[in-house]
């Protein structure tokens, strides 16, 4: 049976995971079985004792003392049960939080390609929602319910054996009815599993809308483009579908529980009526009847609880199977220690070579980079040029090891990328990305991050044109950025943020400088200064400069022209102007615009 395997696997996984930090968790079962059996025995014995005492004209004082002693013992035992259950539930919850933290750590350590892989990310959302994100998820209920289920089952067996000794058909009836209840619950489980999968997909979608709606960066667009209404609509629609599914699940649950309860009532009628008949016929003493009556009452409650617990358990186990699809991946990620067999160490990058590199994104069949080969040497300044979507950013992401070629090789100093540890490999690069990743920290921390450098922070502020901007701020380099963590934090303008990104890259001082549209937000003066100092910035380095302002590419030694993922041409600006019609066309369209602008200004 599929769910049986799933259940054992989930329990095995849980015990293995908790064994290190919470080794006592497994003793919950024997402890709870023991306490439950004692409670069951004493609880069943009390009415029998009362009936027996009444029938044998027992001395009242002795009777009262015995009752007081029993009740005191019961009270203490129940108190003890409450204490150890609270303690072990706390352990279980701590473990759930530990898993939640592990998910975050795994995400941070995973490679960039996985972080943009939609399949892995939707798996992550489903895993959290069903496994560990909140109370009543898989991890929250698996072990507590297993413990209750186990002590319930042992108690059921104990009652079955005792009652079997008195009358064989009584436990048989209970077994038949319980089996029918289980079959009903299995149907419930299968159907609920399907509904839960649909609900996970909705949850993923809702998370996206909520994230966007509350995202500070999107705040201006949402207000000025009147997007509030459409966000509400989308969230409402998502919630409506969610509510329908949840309602379906709830109704199904109630219906199944109604059947289980009906069977229980039927069971009581089948069992009790013949017993009462036997007492009236004098074939059963009142004491034995009371014992059977109490035991069967307990049995009824226990089977009902166990049926419910069983359904919760298979539910929790299915949730954990789903959660593990991502959690096992997290384990792999966290276990990888970024060690490679070879102990190659590169002191300085002399050459970078692409050998027939191709790449397609994880969710796409189509190749974004096609069969690209080139070699770049230390000191060379390269411009990557091409239309929007040609593949320039993808190419430099491959270069920096953020993406891995789907075929072909990338070599540094003739050593293949996979022969070097990723930590060493990524230390070669100082990138400025198109997106300004401003952190909630001081300007200084935003520039230095965790790097040590041969350059001073003053040097890089000057080279990146940031110095005068910083000097105007009251706390200078100690000014906090963004208001996420500090109320007096400031927001930089787009151009200032871009300068901070450039200062960050220069401070890291890697052997390869990668500038992806570094001047897009700069004012004309800052841009012009950057061009003038470009040669000095990239001296003794390899540099890749991506820009749509083709005039800027004249400052580089070699232009690589990318078209639809292919490196179609390379050479100096003059050479490409002569040999490449696409490049010439791009350049002419742009320079014509500038000439017209100049002409217009001239005539004013
Ligand atoms: N995560 C992704 N998954 C699937 N396709 C992607 C992903 N990122 C980019 N692409 C696709 O890859 C192609 C190349 O994108 P890339 O960002 O490399 O182009 P680009 O030359 O840098 O463009 P631009 O000049 O506009 O910055 C585009 O068609 C883009 O849609």
Automatic annotation (TrEMBL):
InterPro entries the record matches: AAA+_ATPase, ABC1_TM_dom, ABC1_TM_sf, ABC_transporter-like_ATP-bd, ABC_transporter-like_CS, P-loop_NTPase, Type_1_exporter
PROSITE patterns to which the protein is assigned, alphabetical: ABC_TM1F, ABC_TRANSPORTER_1, ABC_TRANSPORTER_2
Membrane topology: Multi-pass membrane protein
Membrane keyword on record: yes
Principal subcellular localisation of the protein: membrane
Keywords tagged on the record: ATP-binding, Membrane, Nucleotide-binding, Transmembrane, Transmembrane helix
Subcellular location: Cell membrane
Transmembrane segments: 27-54, 60-80, 142-162, 168-189, 257-278
Residue stretches making up the ABC transmembrane type-1 domain: 133-315
Superkingdom of source: Bacteria
Pfam families from the UniProt entry: ABC_tran
Record-annotated ABC transporter domain positions: 352-589
MF terms (GO), sorted A to Z: ATP binding
Protein's recorded name: ABC transporter ATP-binding protein
């Amino acid at each position: 049976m599929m769910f049986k395997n799933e259940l054992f696997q989930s329990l095995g996984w849980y015990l293995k995971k908790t064994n290190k930090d919470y080794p006592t968790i497994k003793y919950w079962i024997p402890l709870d079985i023991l306490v439950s059996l004692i409670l069951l025995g004493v609880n069943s014995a009390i009415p029998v004792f009362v009936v027996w005492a009444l029938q044998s004209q027992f001395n009242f004082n002795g009777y009262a003392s015995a009752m007081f002693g029993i009740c005191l013992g019961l009270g203490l035992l129940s108190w003890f049960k409450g204490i150890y259950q609270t303690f072990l539930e706390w352990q279980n919850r701590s473990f759930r939080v530990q898993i939640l933290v592990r998910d975050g750590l795994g995400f941070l350590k995973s490679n960039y390609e996985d972080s943009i892989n939609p399949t892995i990310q939707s798996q992550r959302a489903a895993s959290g929602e069903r496994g560990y994100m909140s109370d009543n998820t898989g991890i929250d209920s698996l072990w507590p319910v297993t413990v209750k289920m186990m002590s319930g089952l042992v108690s059921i067996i104990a009652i079955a054996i005792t009652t079997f000794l008195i009358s064989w058909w009584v436990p048989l009836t209970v077994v038949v009815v319980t089996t029918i209840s289980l079959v009903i619950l299995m149907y419930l489980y299968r159907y609920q599993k399907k509904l839960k999968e649909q609900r996970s997909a909705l949850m993923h979608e809702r998370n996206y809308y909520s994230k966007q709606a509350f995202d500070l960066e999107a705040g201006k667009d949402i207000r000025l483009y009147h997007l509030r209404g459409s966000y509400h609509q989308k969230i409402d629609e998502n919630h409506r579908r969610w509510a329908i599914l949840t309602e379906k699940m709830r109704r199904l649950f109630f219906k199944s529980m109604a059947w289980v309860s009906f069977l229980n009532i039927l069971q009581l009628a089948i069992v009790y009526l013949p017993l009462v008949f036997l007492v009236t016929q004098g074939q059963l003493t009142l004491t034995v009847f009371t014992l059977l009556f109490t035991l069967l009452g307990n049995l009824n409650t226990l089977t009902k609880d166990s049926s419910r617990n069983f359904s919760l358990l298979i539910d929790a186990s299915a949730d954990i199977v789903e959660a593990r699809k991502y959690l096992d991946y997290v384990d792999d990620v966290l276990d990888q220690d970024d060690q490679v067999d070879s102990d190659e160490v590169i002191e300085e990058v002399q050459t970078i070579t692409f050998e027939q590199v191709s790449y397609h994104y994880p969710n796409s069949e189509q190749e974004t980079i096609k069969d690209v080969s080139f070699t770049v040497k230390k000191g060379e300044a390269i411009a990557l040029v091409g239309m929007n979507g040609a593949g320039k950013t993808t190419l430099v992401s491959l270069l920096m090891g953020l993406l891995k070629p789907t075929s072909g090789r990338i070599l540094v100093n003739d050593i293949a990328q996979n022969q070097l540890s990723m930590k060493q490999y990524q230390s070669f690069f100082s990138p400025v990305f198109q997106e300004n990743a401003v952190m909630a920290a001081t300007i200084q921390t935003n520039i230095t991050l965790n790097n040590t450098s041969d350059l001073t922070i003053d040097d890089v502020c000057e080279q990146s044109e940031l110095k005068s901007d910083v000097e105007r701020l009251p706390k200078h380099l100690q000014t906090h950025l963004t208001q996420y963590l500090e109320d007096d934090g400031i927001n930089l303008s787009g151009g200032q943020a871009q300068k901070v990104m450039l200062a960050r890259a220069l401070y890291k001082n890697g052997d390869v400088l990668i500038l992806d549209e570094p001047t897009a937000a700069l004012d004309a003066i800052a841009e012009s200064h950057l061009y003038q100092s470009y040669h000095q910035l990239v001296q003794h380095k390899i540099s890749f400069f991506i820009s749509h302002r083709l005039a800027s590419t004249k400052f580089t030694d070699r232009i690589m022209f990318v078209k639809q993922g292919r490196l179609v041409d390379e050479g100096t600006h003059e050479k490409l102007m002569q040999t490449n019609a696409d490049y010439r066309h791009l350049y002419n369209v742009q320079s014509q615009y500038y000439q017209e602008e100049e002409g217009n200004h001239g005539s004013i």
